[in-house]
Amino acid sequence: MKRTLRILFITIVSFLVSSLANHLQAAERCKDYTCIIDGLERSYKLYLPSDIKPGAPLVFVLHGYGANPNHVVGKGFNEAADRHGFAVCYPSGTKDGRGNPCWNVGYPFQEDMEVDDISFVCKLAAKLQKEHDLSRKNTFFTGMSNGGEMCYLLAYCGQKTFKAVAPIAGLTMAWMPEKYRKLNKIPLFEIHGTEDRVSEWTGDMENKGGWGAYLPVPEAVDYWVKANGCTREDIVEIPQKDSCSHKIIAHKFSGKKRTPQVWLYEVVGGVHSWFNEDMDTAEEVCKFFSIYLE
Question: Distance (Å, rounded) from C-alpha 254 to C-alpha 234?
């Protein structure tokens, strides 16, 4: 019995030491950079797996309002990058009039912001593709909350840099479909909690929350279902991570072979979060992006 316990103890310690070593090595590969884009000094973190190959895909992961890349690097994307062979960029937003780091997505209190974050992320992607020999065809974009709004903004504006977007607890501001009426098809994957009280599942067209008017999540997603020409919906339930996890209903919209898919993960009872307590969010996002690799 003592020998069994000793072996078990050694095994656990070895696993923890190995995991810590891998984590420290990964942290060393996630480096800080600064650059000048559109006349502004901008910063970002870049993670490159140790065995990354030339022409590897690139994934942008954006923080939420008032946060920074340090709040995002521990959300599992580095580990997913190791598994899938992606590079990961964590850019920093600029500060608004309130002194909070953010992305300029047209909130009412951002009226005096002149920074063009669409231009910034597209130019940064081009810079990274060139400097680190990353794929121009396989570049993707995800972000949480305010970063999720950037996902929708990139989808609407018709940019050609990012091949697919995955907003997490993100919103479609009401002004977006009003301004951008001619849409380009793009794969889109939204993950959202039905009890989110920051980015309401049911929308806020009266701007009660102060973020500006925004669409209900199912309506926002349906907009892209129709724009992409999806004709089929498959509904499956994602296995729960543990007994405390929320139920996740996956709505997967598709069509013909080349039809860009639209996914909606409805986290029943979920609040405003990355949902890592309910699933491996980074892995789910990267699996979606992997569908569109060339």
Answer: 8
Contact 152, 171 (CB under 8 A): yes
| CB neighbourhood size of 213 (10 A) | 16
Residue range 224-273, pLDDT digits in tens: 999 999 999 999 999 989 888 999 999 999 999 999 999 999 999 999 99
The confidence score (pLDDT) of residue 275 equals 97
Which CATH number covers residue 227? 3.40.50.1820
Q: Buried b vs exposed e over 84-118: b needs ≥16 C-beta within 10 Å? A: bebbbbbbbbbebeeeebbbbbbbeebeebebebb
SS3 261: coil
- What is the rounded distance in angstroms from the CA atom of residue 229 to the CA atom of residue 220? 15
Interaxial angle between packed helices 2-29 and 77-84, expressed in degrees from 0 to 180 and rounded to the nearest 10: 90
pTM of the model: 0.90
Contacts of 161 (CB under 8 A, 6+ apart): 121, 122, 125, 126, 139
Q: Which domain holds residue 137?
A: 2-290
